[in-house]
Amino acid sequence: MKGSGLRAYALLYLLFLYAPILLLPIFAFNSGTVISFPLKSFTTEWFGQMFGNATLRRALTNSLIIAVSSSVLATCLGIFAARASTRFAFPGKGPIMGLIMLPLVLPEIIVAIALLVVLLSLGMTLNVFTVILGHTLICMPYAAVILSTAFNSLDRSLEEAAYDLGETKWSAFRLVILPLVMPGIISSLLMSFTISLDEFIIAFFLAGNEPTLPTYIFSQLRFPKQIPMIMALGTVLVVLSIVLLTIAEYFRRRGVARTGAKDTGGFL
Fold it and tell me: Can you give the residue ranges of the ABC transmembrane type-1 domain (predicted)?
């Protein structure tokens, strides 16, 4: 009886979680402009309208620039943090790592308001660059977690063998360690890219007059005639997010298999 109840709860939970996402492609290919049943005829008009929208293309370009930049910065910082936390013992290690992970538990709106106040007090103009800074901040904890797992699974004897063979610390890191943790680095890049591309609150506060994809979608929800195009855009974003997360999980598992570490779970 307990097993049946748990299965029913799990099915209802999954239905509640994923039913809205499953409705996106249904209405994205529906010719009706009103989001309701019964459906009308099949059409790809909304996708054509989406690709022909100049403002949408500008928002997409901004979002791609922000996502690529913040994922690279967050991953680079995550490499430093993960390497330091897994390889060295130093005073204040616990509090420092806790501070890095703090954006995971803080409400994003609090982080966004704090960043807005700090950046404006420094005299900075709100633009794509300020959004990159904000997204780097919120992506870094995810990058640090992924890369800490990758560095933890390394066999230290490989690094010591490189030193014995005459390699310097930098050359051993570049030639031995980085290739072994490369799947984790790629996983971190893809995860950070996905988080940045989908993030709304930080972009809403810090983008100024520059539109990003999430803020553009939010602005168009006030116009009923634009809803079908937004459903088409949402379908593309969902597919892209699933693909990126699947690739990230593939590289994470590949890295675990390469190092022979125990798999403690992942994204999928």
Answer: 60-248
C-alpha atoms less than 13 angstroms from C-alpha of 131 in its C-beta half-sphere = 32
Cα 29 to Cα 22: distance, rounded to the nearest angstrom: 12
Delineate the domains of the chain, giving CATH numbers in brackets: 56-259 (1.10.3720.10)
Rounded alpha-carbon distances, angstroms, from residue 57 to 78, 109, 195? 31, 27, 20
Q: pLDDT band for 204, please (50, 70, 90 cuts).
A: very high
pLDDT tens-digit profile of 165-175?
777 777 777 77
pLDDT in tens, 76-116: 999 999 988 888 777 888 888 888 888 888 889 999 999 99
- pLDDT class for 3, splitting at 50, 70, 90? low
Q: Is 36 helix (H, G, I), strand (E, B) or coil?
A: coil
Confidence at residue 257, expressed as pLDDT on a 0 to 100 scale? 66
Nearest CA-CA partner of 183 in 113, 121, 261, 120: 261
Widest Cα–Cα separation across the chain: 72
Which one-letter DSSP state was computed for residue 102?
G
* Cβ neighbours around 244 below 10 Å, total: 18
Give the CA distances from residue 121 to residues 77, 126, 203, in Å, rounded to whole numbers and listed in that order: 25, 12, 18
Q: Are 242 and 198 in contact (CB under 8 A)?
A: no
Res 259: pLDDT: 55
CA-CA distance, 258 to 162, in Å (whole number)?
18
What residues pair up with 30 in beta bridges, in sequence order?
42
CA–CA distance, 5 with 11 (Å, rounded to integer): 10
